[in-house]
UniProtKB/TrEMBL annotation, chain A:
All residue ranges annotated as the Aminomethyltransferase C-terminal domain in the record: 867-946
Superkingdom of the source species: Bacteria
Pfam families in the record: Fer2_4, GCV_T, GCV_T_C, Pyr_redox_2, SO_alpha_A3
MF annotations from Gene Ontology: oxidoreductase activity; transaminase activity
Family: Belongs to the GcvT family.
Boundaries of every SoxA A3 domain copy: 476-559
Protein name in UniProt: (2Fe-2S)-binding protein
InterPro entries: 2Fe-2S-bd_N, FAD/NAD-bd_sf, FAD/NAD-binding_dom, GcvT/YgfZ/DmdA, GcvT/YgfZ_C, GcvT_C, GCVT_N, SoxA_A3
UniProtKB/TrEMBL annotation, chain B:
Protein name: Sarcosine oxidase subunit delta
Organism field: Parahaliea mediterranea
Lineage, broadest ranks: Bacteria, Pseudomonadati, Pseudomonadota, Gammaproteobacteria, Cellvibrionales
InterPro entries: SoxD, SoxD_sf
GO terms classed as biological process: tetrahydrofolate metabolic process
Superkingdom assignment: Bacteria
NCBIfam families referenced in this protein's UniProt entry, alphabetically: soxD
Pfam families, alphabetized: SoxD (PF04267)
MF annotations from Gene Ontology: sarcosine oxidase activity
TrEMBL record, chain C:
The organism's place on the tree of life at top rank: Bacteria
Record protein name field: Sarcosine oxidase subunit gamma
Species annotation: Parahaliea mediterranea
Lineage: Bacteria, Pseudomonadati, Pseudomonadota, Gammaproteobacteria, Cellvibrionales
UniProt cross-references to InterPro entries, sorted A to Z: SoxG, TrmE/GcvT-like
Coiled coil: none
Amino acid sequence: MKRTAQRLPHARVDPGKTLRFRFDGRTYEGVAGDSLASALLANGVGVVGRSFKLHRPRGVFGCGKEEANALVQLESGGYSEPNARATLVPLYEGLEARGQNAWPNVRSDVFGALGVFKRLLPASFYYKTFMWPNWQRWEGLVRRLAGLGIAPTSADPQKYLKQNVHADVVVVGAGRSGLEAALATSRDPACRVLLIDEQEEPGGGLLASPAAADRSWLEEALREVAARDNITLLCRTTVNGYYDNNVLAALERLSNHHGPAAGGAVRERFWRIFAGRVVLATGAIERPLVFPNNDRPGIMLASAVREYCHRYGLTLGERIVFYTNNDSAWRTALELVDAGVPVVAIIDLRPAVESELRQRAREAGIALHLGTVVTDTRGRSGLRRLVLHRLAGPGDALEAPAGTLDCDVLAMSGGWTPTVHLYSQSGGLLAYRDSDACFVPERAHQAVTAVGRANGEFAAPLNLQPQWLTPGVSAEHQWVDFQYDVTASDIQLAARENFVSVEHVKRYTTNGMSVDQGKTSNVNGLGILALATGRPIPEVGTTRFRPPYHPTSLGAYAGIELGALYTPFQQLPAHAAHVAAGALFEDYGAWQRPACYPRPGEEEEAAMAREARAVRSAVGLLDYSPLGKLEVRGPDAREFLNRMYLNNIRTLEVGAARYGLMLNEAGIVIDDGVVVCLARDHFLLHTTSGGATTIHQHLEEWLQCEWTDLEVIVGNATTQWATLMLSGPKARAVLAQLDGDIDVSREAFGHMQYREGRLLGQPCRILRASFTGEVSFEISVPANCGLSLWEALMQAGEPHGIVPFGIETLMLLRTEKGYPHVGADTDGNTMPQDLGWGGAVANKPDDFVGRRSLSQPVGSDPGRFQFTGLELLEADARTVSGAHILTADGESTAGYVTSAFHSPNLNRTVALGIVADARDRQGEEVTVFYAGQRQRARLIKPGVYDPAGEALNG
Amino acid sequence: MIRIECPWCGPRSEAEFTCGGQSHIVRPADPAAVSDREWAQYLYQRDNPKGLHYERWRHTFGCRQWFNVARDTVTHEIRAVYRMTDLKPAPGGEGV
Amino acid sequence: MAKLDRATPLAGTGLERAGLCVAENTGLGLIRLQAFHRRPGAVEELTARLGIEPPGPGSLRSERDRQWFWSAPGEWLIAIPAGTEDAVLGALRAQLDGLFVVLSAITDSQVALDITGEAVREVLARGSTVDFHPASFGAGNCVLTRFAGVPVMLASPGRGEQILLFADRSLARYLLDWFEAASIDC
């Protein structure tokens, strides 16, 4: 690789503006407009990487996304990006990059010696070697030696956004064909056109053209695009995926070209595009030729040599040779000579080439070798020499040696592959065109068309003669996939081992599985497979194209959905008060709720114990606002609820409240709560805290889908009301202090009763239900008054020793009482009879949702897990929810501990569970198993604190 | 992603909806009178066609209404959208 | 304490950026009207009694000091001046007496946000896949959609580029935080 002292004129870089950068510990200079790759080439850096398996020295091979060798570790720390293609990294001041997969650096990698072991390391060698004594012994070593980049270990500090957009026409690719399509479709001012290009600037292939006509056409087209309001041009944006309903995904690089200096600016934006129709102007990618040692630094794609010359102003070498099987490379060679690049020879494996091209080549002083193939190359850290042979005939054996040729750059072209990934992802069908040896779009499945080279429309005929690998020489060192070190012999091996499906060959050899996803290796690979299995290429077919087309930062998929915004959260009406009181918040579903309110220095368990003692001896206050409040109204409301609840709702009188169970159609308990009859045709349902939306949806489903004639309207009033639970022997005394018109005296307001009225100037609803076992008032006021009510009750309760208490304390208290909590003490199998509700079912004459399932055989299976209390027998014993109850033989599970707390009111553990046949086994001893430890327990009636419920009469 | 045309709100992304599985499942008029086998079939037996599937969807994040969809399970193409109370359109019939 | 204080979900806090402003609208009261739309003729009866045609799916309509927003078949959200809920409920109940219609005050259950700024449509398109181009979402449109992962109503009453957002009050802080993160470049 030759260092370029002076850029060629007409290059699209700014030689006046130098940029300093570091690669593998050395400092270099490039110019504005360079990519990292072009800057390295300008500095004569030949070796930029080491290959995946064998650590072979590799140089820059391409000029864009097809780059297969120049993979670098870009920047460091939180900005570290492994496997960045140097051809896609725009150069910026201070850029830092390192070569990968090498030690101490890519120039002098000690593991280069591995090349000697190639025979031992064919495709999928790890299924056959490193077997003794077992693979795991070797795995660590092999993984350390293999691999390319290093995953970052620091958090990514950069910001990403996601954006949706709708457009009537989306044009992918702003080269000539794309610009023409965008200008044509945007003539209608009402048509919204989105023009997208993956490069730093628009122009596509025109950016590599030396022709003045091309350059002025591009300028004019871009001026016109900018002038039209209805065209949005997005550059630095790669369309990554094509999904159903013409939905596309794209990734825009907003500030990558500034590097870490971009600071807090948004780095990338992930676009979700809803397209009316799509035009794919994605061009075509050149293929390499497959011949022995075709991977040396200095061996590049002809189109890359062209682009480095005309766009970046680099000559690259002193003796440039072309090796090809088609006409496009000849035209490139002639263009380069015109630009002053020393092209010394063209080697063409075809026996005959068009006379006009031959004539012009001779006039340009280029030596011609027709019907000739390259059978070897020399030069470990940089190409020095080619070994040539004459072909006997197309695809045949070699005829005779044809000498050697000194050169330092080999520009190869094995043909062109239209970029059809998105077309295929959209469900479009491809057809194989023999004459150009490539797959082209044939039949669209969605509203998409391909234009230009993406559609196989080449500017001039290729006259291509395919040669998938070089005959007459070993396939061992003929590279197909440069990134993953896959050779033609690997593909032949796969075929011999009967992996003949192209999908199997891909995975067995890893051909096409690396960062470039086979952009230059897939077609060569299936060509070799076709030969090895004696099938025509269309029969071999292509592997399935899947998004993303190009590697996408994980941060872009996350966008802003990180940290606190990872998932939506809900806050309570009195949230500010809970924060001020030092609440320990936990997530209960989407709700942020206080688990308890630890005092400074207090552990969670101690806080819960203090709160639980206070509730039973004085009074506590809990924000119970997520308690579901559903209003069910209508002439058929009573009948409807009678069908939805296990309980008899038909007989529920106005003003009465009843605790009820709701089942799904399979008979499983899904909810419990108190139903209040407000009027003959008006009911207020309380559902499990946090279950309001689910039960609302459940009721609506039956009304909308099954019983569409029932005149019922359901309204969800859960968040319209803030609900506070005031609980304890002093609760009444506290509540009575507040100004209102509801008589809360013991005589006037009994347990399981409901009142409406006004409290402190606001409408108020109070339900005397109890989940703690103490006298409790569930007080609801309009939610905007919730914070104020909390403060009023805390103030009124102060002289009585009121404490705020949280959900964990509530769970402790209700466990002491043996009250089941649906979802904690019930699982996906729990039927009402398991909770002791069999009698209630028998007492109800009518059908209800789930009733029929209760009498299915499974409903009376012996061994059903039934709700029970558990008494731990050892002193100071503890257990946790999730501990197993063992079968008599101790071999398997016969139930679980579902709730367990240390009770400060009883000074021992209280626990509940679901255990096989528990209702018939009361008093029996069982074994509790958890984390390797066993202990004895007895099955008892749930609820050991105040079992007679005397506190509720207080 | 699937775009579904809600009968009220118009075309929206799949993420706004919840799928309710096979539609036109008839609840036995008298559950007490059916055999265990028939009840189990009503609860659990579902078609799994490679092709046209009649299913329910709910516009959970929009109008909260249930409606029916005739969708091709291979191509995801939605061939018909009709209300919960409408009759099932015949395959190959109008719009399907 | 003689009376309870009222505090709106965001207590007046909002977001102000060069290209986007999110402010809590505390001047509205909200009423939900639910009619049993599955009975043929129910909505026509309702329209006749009201004397105005309530808006259809995707639309809002202003009459007098009330704004009607379609929120489901047979269901509308009615925005009125804050504090007038009782009076309006009374008037509507009298007007619709005898019909099976449910009227509820739901002011407290919602947070209302006014969103303005030149980046409004772009930022909204970061939260929902609805097309917010003026041709598809203009004056008189209102949509119920999934926004930032939660159910939300977005309306364009037509006051310039001001968008009105209604969501459950418990999501107020989450939505404000979302707007702050999503408009970081505005």
